[in-house]
Amino acid sequence: MTSLWWDTLPPDLLAPMGPRLEGDVDADVVVVGAGYTGLWTAYYLLTTLPGIRVAVVEAQHAGFGASGRNGGWASALFPASLEAVARVGDRDGAIRQQRTMFDTVDEIGRVAAAEGWDIHWAKGGTVVAARTPLQWQRAQEEIAHWRAWGFGDDDATLLGADETRRLLNATDVIGATYTPHCAAIHPARLVRHLARTVVARGGRIYEQSPVTSLAPGIVRTAHGSVKATHVVRATEGYTSSLPGYRRAMAPVYSLMIATEPLSAADWDRIGLEDRATFSDGRHLIIYGQRTADGRFAFGGRGAPYHFGSRIKAEYDRDPRVFAELWRCLTDLFPHLAGRAVTHSWGGALGVPRDWFASCGLDRATGVAWGGGYVGDGVGTSNLAGRTLADLLCERSTDLTSLPWVGHRSPNWEPEPIRWFGANVGLRVMGSADHVEARTGKPAKRAKVFSRFLGE
To answer: Is residue 433 assigned to a domain?
Structure first.
């Protein structure tokens, strides 16, 4: 069992999506990685140019990585701040990038409806509760920040305590921010439907085919290779496992738990009637959703970065982190204390050095890329797929002129500096929450570290 999401897939979506690559084949485009980014790229290429030869090479099975393990937020969140995006472009470009992210949420819903995919779609928005005076202050500052950039109540708004409790009846609620630009989904259903549709439209997926090298015009595996005009790197949290890309992306683990299905009475006390996704204003991120079958799926950061960007199956499970997630959830909703946790899992997400997601195409080499979503990839990967399809088809569109297109993040520092910095950052953000709870004053350490994140 990789996650709750895999454990609750219907049998038809569990069937293999393709064979292992055996021998050498040719394609117009070869994509490395059968997660959201790679599969959305293949989908839009096949939609735009029927008959194009697209091959997707995957080390495990389609959706094995973050695409089949995440919190199920199809959100408009972009990891870099508006100010950071404006610095690589301009103010208008940053605003256009964010509004395109808003539209991207609806694009995912549109495609799912048009293709007949049952992905448990519920566009209930996101509520971020403020549960201390400092969190409430930051919530007000966040809404003021949105207003300063020209975004109105239709995009983000402030809720009072009573309004918040009607939506999310968590303990100690003072207020919240709310945005309508998010849908709760079943992430593994999305990635497996997407993979099956890619195959139905003529794409080829080669599962169980770990890539040994990626170079202009060719992708090699232990048992065969794919030659193509264009190569797309869509490996996100697994990028560091590719030769030559060790320092391009840091794989950081996020872990989750899921409860048994809760009763109607439980949900009457909790809220989330429209399946809004939720979080709160602490520094060390938590996230959750009410699933279509009435569970809490709840996750957060807290697992350490592993030296040398190592990725191992045993890192998906950390009893200490799972226990802390359960403590957080029952602190928010104490009456859940007697309920059962039926699933616990985790996985690696990709973090670029400047926390700035990007996609692009190097026309000199024919190598394209997309990723660096820092955990906000369900929506951003769709935008990447559409943009990469336009770039590969040599179409100049509104998407190809967005500020993130062609951005190059710097490499992470070599070890042991990388290990030290990543784990110090984790401790800083966690301790900032404790400092604020104890003193009632803003933690300066969190503000100092935010500069390290490129904000």
So the answer is: yes
Looking at the predicted structure, is the pLDDT value of residue 344 above 80? yes
Instruction: Say if residues 316 and 66 touch (Cβ distance below 8 Å).
Output: no
Note the pLDDT tens digit of each residue in 369-398.
999 999 999 999 999 999 999 999 999 999
**pTM as predicted:** 0.95
Range of the domain at 128: 120-185+253-349+415-452
Q: Measured between alpha carbons, how far is 168 from 289 in angstroms, rounded to an integer?
A: 11
Under a CB-based contact definition with an 8 Å cutoff, are residues 392 and 370 in contact? no
Q: Is residue 15 part of a domain?
A: no
Whether residue 315 is contained in a domain is answered as yes
Closest to 125 (Cα-Cα) out of 162, 164, 69, 70: 164
Question: Which residues, at least 6 apart from 147, have a Cβ–Cβ distance to it below 8 Å?
Answer: none
For residue 412, give the amino acid letter: W
* Residues with Cβ within 8 Å of residue 322, at least 6 apart in sequence: 255, 257, 341, 344
DSSP state letter for 271: B
CATH, residue 324: 3.30.9.10
If phi over 0 gives left and psi between -120 and 50 gives alpha, with beta otherwise, what is residue 440? Answer: left
| pLDDT at 448 exceeding the cut of 50 | no
pLDDT of residue 454 exceeding 50, the answer is: no
